[in-house]
Amino acid sequence: MDTLDMNIQHEKVMEKLDGTMLRKIYEQFSSAWAQKLQTQGNVPTFYDHVIKDGLTLFSMNIESIPWEKDLEDIILSVEHFASRQGIEMFISQMVNWYYGRYVLYDLRVQPNEMIQSSLDIDFLKKSARDTTFSMSQGYFDCLQWKDTILFKTVYDLAIYQMLMWELKPKTIIEIGSGTGGSAVWMADLMASYGIESKIISFDIIAPKIRYDNVTFLQGDCNHIDQIMKVAILEKMPKPWLLIEDAHVNVYGVLQHFHPLLQEGDYLIVEDSENKQKEINRFLKDTNKSYLVDAQYCDFFGHNMTCSYDSIFRKMK
Question: What pTM does this model have?
Fold first, then answer.
């Protein structure tokens, strides 16, 4: 994303989401969805049927919807045709699509500032995280990779394999090794892509595993600068994929790596629903150098990932 794209993103943030704005979003979304369907050979996904229902609801009532009013009035005008939950979900889909792939963190966590409405708009950041997500590492037994426990959700496994193909990282740094399963899985994935990549995985108790292109290091995140020395890190080839999953000294770890991350590198904070305070502090102290990659955060639904609003692309 260049400076022009960043300016467009900031301009969108300044727009107030009222009925007039929603109609503009609806028209753009409808056109984009039709083009998307065409690229799929007009073969719809399961969710395309849901989108079609939402677009049909709005198109059939386009003349009677009070576009000059706010969101609450618009929802009330069509609520007798569909459930409120369904209408809210569809509006959320359109609005999140409009704001695009790379999104300011503040917009993700505080959408109220852009809403011109009496409506409680928490649905714009509503998550589909329910018992389905809580079982996504396994209902009873945990996911495994080559007889090693793999503490990733099925959603994140799919997200990572797409991101890693797109990014093609030469260096992957994992803070928090666990049993070592995810590092081994990433090494195998990169090898299957034919991409030469080194995985450095760090934990206070290093896994006793030897594996091609994987280096396990032992150390304490409270002393990250002593283990992950800047002089060594600076020599590691780009692009980088940096993954924080240790839950210890989160802010300090992120600050340690920040000067080393270049534009286009990715920073992912896993299990981040309870790390938002540290993330928010880090983003403020780094002058919003990172944008949330909403495409991956919301690929299966709003924040259907363990990296809650925390799949970041370094922008500057």
Answer: 0.82
